[in-house]
Amino acid sequence: MKRRTAILLLLTIMHLTHYSYASSPPFTKWNKTYGGSQPDMAYSVQQTKDNGYVIAGYTSSFGAGSADFWLVKTDSYGNTQWNKTYGGLGRDEAYSVQQTSDGGYILGGSTRSFGMGLSDFWLVRTDSSGELMWNKTYGAPFFDVAYSVQQTSDDGYIVAGSTNSLGSGSEDFWVIKADPNGGMQWNKTYGGLYDEVAYSVQQTNDGGYIVCGYTSSFGSGYEDFWLLKIDSNGSILLNKTYGGENSEYAYLVQQTNDNGYIIAGSTYSLGAGLDVWLVKTDSSGTMQWSKTYGGLLDEEAYAVQQTSDSGYIIVGFADSLNDNRDVWLIKVNSTGNIEWNQTYGGTENDEAYSVQQTSDEGYIIAGTTYSFGAAWDPDFWLIRLSYALKTDLNIDGRVDILDISIAAKAYGSYVGHPRWNEAADVDKNGSINIIDISLVAKDYGKTT
Predict the structure, then answer these.
(1) pTM for this structure?
(2) What is the extent of the structural domain holding 439?
(3) What b/e readout covers 408-445, taking b as 16+ CB neighbours within 10 angstroms?
(4) Residue in 249, 201, 258, 260 with CA at minimum distance from that of residue 225
(5) Is residue 33 located within the same domain as residue 132?
(6) Is 4 helix (H, G, I), strand (E, B) or coil?
(7) With contact defined as beta carbons under 8 Å apart, do 74 and 56 qualify?
(8) Local confidence band at 398 (pLDDT 50, 70, 90 cut-offs)
(9) Residues paired with residue 365 on neighbouring β-strands, in sequence order
(10) What integer pLDDT is reported at residue 277 of this predicted model?
């Protein structure tokens, strides 16, 4: 009876650990702020190979100038393992980070400390400890800003942003392909007589690239979503705009598992006000569906990712749902219908710019908080969400008591029982030792 009870309890915990409840958000496992007495803004996060996290943005609290690139590496609990600043006496801001194939990091953003223009693209390449390996600037006399960087299949890099120095208009898409050492292999501008800004680039399955942002030169409104598919040499394969008579801004694009594309941003033309706008296209860029999400005030999406269930996770901010601006996380199914949504924040304004599904099918969110942290000025804010209840271990190898308590509560048990506090043994595969569970089950008097 004792063994059957233990097995039942173990199966219950395993079920709670691995099942993602489509109709409800995951719980907040932890959240952390990072910063000092001046503004610190986080724009990009990625789970790393060791199940920790890397966050990139800029800091005005630390470093050499008015703002420096800031790279923060944490463990799986969000505890800082190391942090590094990169910059000069001017303003340097990182907007994108990715872990590279060798375990190091590539950061992309803008620099006013180095280069030849008022602002230049800046790539910073580090090793796994954040030590600088090389850095490169790309630009001309005026303003050039990189918003997205990704390592490519040849171990080089693709970078996208905007240029005020080159091209045919006041501001154009600018895409640069660099080799593994940052040497420029080619660069292309795309645009018309007015403003175009590229916020996102990704290598596609065919070795080309998908780029999104907004255009003021083409389309039907003041600004429209602009989607470009280019080949491996930067030549345009498809060119699509999406929008209404007012303004739309696209901030992130991802190729989907059907070889189409998902684009997230905001719209003034559709919905109730400034609303989140999600656009799904086929591989030719033809719109399959679009959805708006929002209320009477302002809502905006800065990031989207296709999830393991072929739905999508979207993050940004919402003004309509509470008394102040909060982080807004929306989970939708494969056709864009909301499964759940959740806000996170305090009494001041809080926004998120990056989201990623984690290895346990939870989520990691990075953004900026005015509600929490070290000062009145904004701090990096990292939020970890999870459905998993048994996967994390403390430094001493014991099961995290918070997770065990939640499992016990879900099983209908009293969470304060001392045996949960023991939670001593974990098998090599990360499972809770069934003997220990049987002891707990015995104390609770559970029967099958």
Answers:
(1) 0.85
(2) 2-8+396-444
(3) beebebeeeeebbeebeebeeeebbbbebbbbbbeebe
(4) 249
(5) yes
(6) helix
(7) no
(8) very low
(9) 355, 383
(10) 98
